[in-house]
Amino acid sequence: MKKLGGKPQYIALAMAAGLVISVALIMGILSLTLYRGKDPITMLNGVVLRDLQISQDVPKLTVDLNLSVRNPNKYAFRPTKNTAFLLYRGVMVGEAVIEVGEIAPGATKSMTVTLTILAERMQGNPAIHMDVAGGMVPFNTYTKISGKVKVFRVFGVTVISTGLCGFDIDVKSKTIGDPKCA
């Protein structure tokens, strides 16, 4: 029988390298297709008017946003920066930080965010006097939740969820109309 020498070692080394490359290739394909990071879904479940006072035609307003965030990923979502804005005719008049915490795979987490108008930002807007006199003041809320999803506990993928909703406040009855979200 002929002696093979070092050839079995090279064959075993080539098979091991081929196996490692195959596993890495399969993980790469799966992470780009089936298990890729998907953006979380933010939903506005309701808006509650907590406080409304009109002084010198400028409203002092506090609203509670009832939000829910759904994680459609197969991995946990870890939010990093989360903000809610209250807009009047495209101008930011209120801001709040959204405290979310980690969301498990496929889970939905509900939270309440309180937004208060910064009165000094409303006073310089001439449209507010006409809206208050007309009885309906339009507002929009913009929410942005961004974070990371670790695919296969190796690849960190950044995902972002945004939401824009509008609602009108009836200053006479101090009620909020149904929010309309885009």
From TrEMBL:
Q: Does the keyword Lipid metabolism apply?
A: no
Answer yes or no on keyword Transmembrane: yes
Q: Which InterPro entries match?
A: Lea14-like_2, LEA_2
**What parts of the sequence cross the membrane?**
12-35
Pfam families per UniProt: LEA_2
SUPFAM superfamilies to which the protein is assigned, alphabetical = LEA14-like (SSF117070)
Keywords attached to this Swiss-Prot or TrEMBL record, sorted alphabetically, are: Membrane, Transmembrane, Transmembrane helix
Mind telling me what this protein is named?
Late embryogenesis abundant protein LEA-2 subgroup domain-containing protein
Late embryogenesis abundant protein LEA-2 subgroup domain: which residues?
Answer: 67-157
Q: What's the superkingdom here?
A: Eukaryota
